[in-house]
Amino acid sequence: MYAVSDEFLEAVQENTRTYYWAGTITTIAGKVYSFDYSDIVKGSGYISSQCCGSTEIELGTVYSSELGITLYSEVDRYTLEDAIIEISCFLLLPDGNYEAVPMGVFEVSEANRTVNCLEIKAYDYMLRFEKDFNGFQSTGTAYDFIYLCCLACSVEMAQTQEEIESMANGSETLSIYSEDDIETYRDVLYYVGQVLGGFFIINREGKLELRKYGSDPVLEIEQKHRFSSSFSDFITRYTAVSSTNMRTETAEYYSVDPDDGLTMNLGVNPLLQFGLDETRAQLCTNILNDLQAVNYVPFDSDTIGNPALDLGDVLTFSGGQADEDQVSCITSIKYTIGGKQKLKCVGKNPKLSQAKSKNDKNIAGLLSQIEEGAMGIYTYTNASAYTVGDSNTKIISMEFTAKEETYAQFIAQVVLEVAADSVEMSATASGTITIPDSVADSSGDTSSNESTEDETTDDSSEDTDTSSGTEISVSLPVTWTEDGEALVYVTYEYNNSYITAFAPVETWHSGKHILTLYYPIEDIAASVASYFNVYLRLEGGTGKVATGDCIAAISGQSMGGTYAWDGILELTEEDIGRFSLVTGIANPGYSDDMGYEKYGQKDWDVSETVTAAAFGRMFAAFEEDET
User: Fold this and answer.
1) What is the DSSP string of 143-168?
2) Measured between alpha carbons, how far is 119 from 620 in angstroms, rounded to an integer?
3) CA dist., res. 501 & res. 520, Å (int)
4) How confident is the model over 131-189, as pLDDT tens digits?
5) CA-wise closest residue to 417 among 542, 551, 539
6) What is the number of other CB atoms lying within 10 angstroms of the CB of residue 238?
């Protein structure tokens, strides 16, 4: 917080305040133009600054502050290139005097003319560090590198050598090697800021200043001083840092106990690549100790405004939904000239952060040529047919890597021909049978037959009544077979662990079916081989997957790259016929080779010759021990 008087702090929180803004514009030719509050178009002026991104706390940041303002002015816009703007806020104190608070020094980057107004956009001196760094190898302390950058870019330092060296890691000797990704002096400041556990800003006097996150509140903002506010229901805190060691190609992990918070990823810092392992560990531990001050509740609030507030100031809030026992830090601030002041603190929820490995991570994938953040895809097609029964059959086996920790999606379609077991069905058929009242005489008498035939012929024209008879109810058992139903069980396996929380099941009759599969894969470790397998099992039938009828894909950002050997040895099996130990002893020339194959970046072939004679001697020694 900018140093102001107690009277100022009292006056700035009153319900009514009297203030004004004024400043000067100095051209590179030395011409000075003054402007006051009446020259500023109402609602056009703002000053915006930040020390973090939009989502989480960061270390080593070198953000530039921005000034936008529209003036009623006749100044020639062509004379304002690289002109310097200094602007201040003046507040009326109870004693009748005005106290000035400088709001920064800015360089004009753009000036546009309208009919009556001059629109100006300017940035502070941080942009001066956007100057090519020559990339030479160098060794020195943090102060040496900061001084080098300021000297090369014509910016004053706000802190002395003693102040820098008194900080954690401030007196350590650091080195820059030529094979790094440093392009500008701003990059150098970024890496130095990480080592010192803070962030850089251009202060109100136009000097480069390193600030650190703190825990002591400088001001309480009451509910009556806020137009609106929003507070998170979690506290952002860090319990670990990780730093990539390019020499060993591992991400070194340092944490406190208990390690239940966020991890600050320092990435590949060129200043942390040389020195003893103990020195690297001490540097990272010191950075972690500085991060222990981060214990903030993220918030977003529009306030009445206090021009003395700065980036990194710790605040408390009271009234409304605020928790008076918690603190927050200003990571973004926007002054509206003559209007509201917007304050913000960013941060992630430790409970929702993805899990971090407590061991060194294999990062060979970081050395691949895949563009960071680009979409990658792994595909799979079965090269052989599968028969699926009542035991798990692996139909999909995919291996993949990612350049950085990411998420991916697994999708697949399988054409499965199902032969469901036949099911025997049984039922009872019910109905009625009509038995006629008269039955033909079956004695075989011819005359009788002739008489009957004549009677039949003579009476052929008469209607015959067939409705007479006796009805009898009948029930008969009936059995038959029909196509049954087969249950298709799907099991996912990720990195040798079965996924039990989600196991799809389908119910199908005989025939060909399309099985569509989907699963989101989370917490994919960087540059380490990962495995995803799919198993099928059928109950009540069998299934067949023809060659090429199973296609799958795993896609996500930063997918791909190579990986170093993960320590897994896969041994191939080989069956040999029986042989006599006696024959082997008598014939020492008998031998057999066992092959070992290692998967990874290099293919090693290691063979060991085992002779039958040697095996016989071992067996004899074993029998002797048993005796």
Assistant:
1) HHHHHHHHHHHT--BSS-HHHHHTST
2) 98
3) 13
4) 888 755 567 889 988 998 999 899 999 999 999 999 989 988 888 765 567 888 999 99
5) 542
6) 26
Strands 117-123 and 98-113: what pairing? antiparallel
In 367-421, beta strands by DSSP E: 375-381, 386-388, 393-400, 406-420
CA-CA distance, 269 to 170, in Å (whole number)?
16
Q: Is 0.90 surpassed by the pTM of this model?
A: no
- Cβ atoms of 80 and 35 closer than 8 Å: no
Question: Tokens 């392992």 sit at which residue?
Answer: 277
As a three-state string, the secondary structure of 42-63 is CCCCEEEEECCCCCCCCCCCCC
Q: Give the DSSP H or E segment for 448.
A: helix 446-458
Six-digit token string for 242: 């990780």
Report the distance separating Cα 96 and Cα 77, nearest Å: 37
pLDDT of residue 574: 56
Q: How far apart are CA 613 and CA 352, in angstroms?
A: 62
**CA atoms of 171 and 201, how far apart (whole Å):** 21
CA distance 147 to 189: 10
- What's residue 249's pLDDT? 73
The DSSP code sequence of 265-309 is E----GGGSSS-HHHHHHHHHHHHHHHTT-EE--EEEEES--TT-
Distance CA 362, CA 274 (A): 19
Phi, psi dihedral angles at 292 (to 5 degrees) = -65, -20
| Between residues 178 and 499, the one the model is more confident about | 499
Confidence of residue 281 (pLDDT cuts 50, 70, 90): confident
Is the pLDDT at 222 greater than 70? The verdict is: yes
Strand partners, 609: 593
Please count the other Cβ atoms lying within 10 Å of the Cβ belonging to residue 248: 11
- The DSSP call for residue 184 is B
Residue 163 has a CB neighbour count (10 Å cut-off) of: 13
- Cα(270)–Cα(251) distance, integer angstroms: 14
Give the mean pLDDT of 313-325: 88
Where b means 16+ CB within 10 Å and e means fewer, 75-109 reads bebeebeebbbbbbbbbeeeeeeebebbbbbbbbb
- Distance, CA of 441 to CA of 448 (rounded, Å): 9
The SS3 of residue 530 is strand
Q: For residues 406 and 267, give the distance between their C-alpha atoms in angstroms, rounded to a whole number.
A: 15
Under a CB-based contact definition with an 8 Å cutoff, are residues 107 and 126 in contact? no
Give the pLDDT of residue 542.
93
416 neighbors 513 (Cβ within 8 angstroms): yes
Residues 6+ apart with CB under 8 A from 446: none
% residues pLDDT > 70 (the chain): 79
> 163-166: long-range contacts at Cβ-Cβ below 8 A with a sequence spacing of 24 or more?
164/196, 164/210, 165/141
Q: Which amino acid is it at 355?
A: A
List 117's β-bridge partners, or say none: 72
> Among 81-95, 111-125, 582-596, where is mean pLDDT lowest?
582-596
* Angstrom distances, CA of residue 474 to CA of 181, 219, 431, 434: 95, 98, 5, 11
